[in-house]
Structures are given as C-alpha cells and as structure tokens.
Structure of Cytochrome c domain-containing protein:
Amino acid sequence: MFKAKNVIRIGKGANAVLARPLSGIPLAIWAFSLTFALALGSTAAQQTPPPNPHSPPPTSVTHQMYLDMKLGTLNIHGDNAVVEALVLQRDIPITYDYVATLMRTPNAFGEGPACIVCHSSNDQLKSYRGLNLSSCEGILLGATEAPANPIVIKGEPFQSHLIQRIRNNRMPLGTPFFAPVDTDSILAVKDWINAGALNDENFTTKVLPLFVDPVAFGSETACTECHKSFRDPPSFNEVNLTSYDAIMTGAFSKTRKKQNLPGLPIVVPSNAEASPLYQRLTTSRMPPGTDPGSPADHPNTLLLMRWIEQGASCD
C-alpha cells in the first residue's frame, strides 16, 4: 500500500483499488476499511452460488459485509464507494462527533474554509447570521439574526436549510458570490410570489420575460437556457420556466409522475423565502469558493444528510 497525490492503492494487479481519502476520515481508517473488505471479498467478482436459505443470519454488520462480498452483491469501486457501501446502504448511525468534525474541517463539503470559521457564535456581531455551527445545540437552534430561522428539520434533510446551502448553487450559474440580491428583477420575482404567485398581467408582462433575459439576474445566461422543458436532459432537474403552468408544476415532475407523485414545488405562493425559485436567485452555495461545477452530493454531504434523516441526535 502506498500514497501518492492523495490517492492510495490497495491490493495488487486486477484486484487493486485506487481511492482518495474523504475529508474528516483518517487515512488509516480509510485504508483499513478497503484492505479488510478486499481481503474478505477477493472472489466477489466471480460467480458464486446463491445463499443457503437455511444458513444462520449474520451476527454483525461485519459478518453481513463478509457475506455480501462473498456473494458478489457488494462491489467497492470509485472514490465514494466505502461511504456508500459500508455506511449509507447499511444505515449505520451517524454520530454528532462526526458532524462536529465536518464543521471544523476545511474542504469538508467542497473547496473552501471550515464552516466554523464564519459560523461559530450566536452573536451576530461575531458570526454571520448569528449562526453557531460549533455545537450541536447551535446547529439545532439555527440562525438568530433576523429573519431568524432553523437550519435543520429533523428527519427532513432536503427541507433543511443547512443542506440546501451546502448543495444548491446560486442561479444562474456563474453569478458572483457578492452580487446584490435586491435588484429590480429579483424583487419582481419576490413580490410576485409574496402577492400569491398569480397568473395575472403582472406575471405575464413583468415576471415571465425575466426568465428569457440573459442578463436579468446578474449573469449572462437566461434561465430558460437550462430550464425549458420537463426532460432532463436538456433541462436540469426537469424544471421548466417557459410558462406559468410549467413553473407551478415544479421540479422532477416527469420522474415523480411515474410514482404517482406531483412535482416538487419551486414556488410557494405568498412565501418567497420558502420558494426554491427565489432561494436559488439569492443564496450562494456554502462554503464560499466552492466550484459551482463540483458535485452536489459530496460523500460528507450525504453523511450529514443521513444524520439529519436519523433525527439529528446530539449523542
């Protein structure tokens, strides 16, 4: 086993694995996980007989991992494989200790400073938004500067503002971090939503044309360049901003329709702050400096989401 340019190689020949350690996971633990898994499952890629229905159940998660690899049902490959295969798929409890490590680790969710550099106190004179990410209590309390709001909704990672800020890029892509959020165009969208998001003359003449204007929201790309149909591709997240009905249909409508579910709303009438459409026009991805082209689902982000999904326990 050796390390070069933050990449480790474990095993020999065709069975070797190249992997890059994750932020917040010590190299020794990372390497041990892969070495142990490979040692147990060196024949995982080969055809093996189905499990014996009369075999005793696994006695531990380690035993289960061994059985899965022996049967070829656990495949470990790629940078994020260990987290996905050994943690997320097995619903291993995520402790607050690990979450605390993430908040203190630079580049934990993408290139940028540690979260607690900017958010370490509920005092709004010392910490942006009066947000304290240096303790579990602070995370659950949320932002204290007006408008005060929680950043974690237990059991609902996608509804939690903390996850939204880590995953979601400001729109349109390429908008500078310090671009104003109170321009006439943005306020027009905000006022339309807060007035009930009606399909009226104001929407038709003042709001809808903004989505086809390449300079309306601080970039040089019209919203409809990336959001013009219910298919992905060509429209990211199956968002369609070409008409009132399309906007109100929401995101992932085509995919969710197959599951007899409505699209995810991007507009919450009378509540711009809760509307993803307005949020994406005004909030930049955290931490500052994260490349908008970097993957939204960094392994550490997935672990943070799982912690919230499991109830955001402080234990």
Observations:
- The chain has three domains: 2-46+58-90, 96-169, 184-282.
- Residues 166 and 263 are 22 Å apart (CA to CA).
- Residues 27-40 form the longest helix (14 residues).
- The chain is about 30% helix and 5% strand.
